[in-house]
Amino acid sequence: MNATISHTDTIEIKQGTVRDLETLALLGRVTFRESHGGYIEDKTNLNAYLDKAFSVETTKKELEDSNNVYFILYRNQLPVGYVKLVLNAPSEFIENQNCCRLERIYVLDEFITHKFGLELFKKTIAKAKELQFDVMWLTVYIKNTRAINFYEKNGFEKVGSISFKISKQGYENPILAKKL
Questions:
Q1: CB–CB of 32/50 below 8 Å?
Q2: 98 domain-assigned
Q3: Are 128 and 172 within 8 A, CB to CB?
Q4: CB 28 within 8 A of CB 55
Q5: In what order do the strands lie in the sheet with 135-139?
């Protein structure tokens, strides 16, 4: 699929800081709901998860943690996506423990066809290599075939599986890893 970026679009990726706190909290909440909300049957559980995981307080703690790196993608100066990379994140499913984790990569639905996720992904891979990590890993919901196909196309392979809990409901998530 061709990117639909117009020649008048200005695309910029900036590292997120505490000054971006509200932007990241809101982007996280909206993009998680867009990408996962349809899979979660109990909307009360979904809302409780969103309130906790993407609160201003939680996002502030994550931004202040030097083990987390955020990048925000702007299109014409508006934030349309972001990524969260967790440094020094070994996994029981990966022998090499010099790992980082791609914990979140989200783009607002309206902009997914623009291939902004690929731009965020490239920036994140470059950062992980710059920091000399050997392996990047992630989890993805098993029914999110679009994301799984994206990761496999970009060199990730399944190395395990976990159950991601929202309230008491578990959701199967394959663990995918890529050598850097």
A1: yes
A2: yes
A3: no
A4: no
A5: 11-15, 68-75, 78-86, 99-107, 135-139, 169-179, 157-166
Between CA 60 and CA 70 the distance in angstroms is 12
CATH number at residue 76: 3.40.630.30
Domain that holds residue 58: 11-179
**74 close to 14: Cβ distance less than 8 angstroms:** yes
Asked whether residue 102 is domain-assigned, the answer is yes
List the structure tokens of 100.
């980082």
72-107: pLDDT as tens digits: 999 999 999 999 999 999 999 999 999 999 999 999
pTM of the model: 0.90
For residue 46, what are the contacts with CB-CB under 8 A and spacing of at least 6?
33, 36, 37, 40, 166
Q: Residue 55 and residue 36: Cα distance in Å, rounded?
A: 17
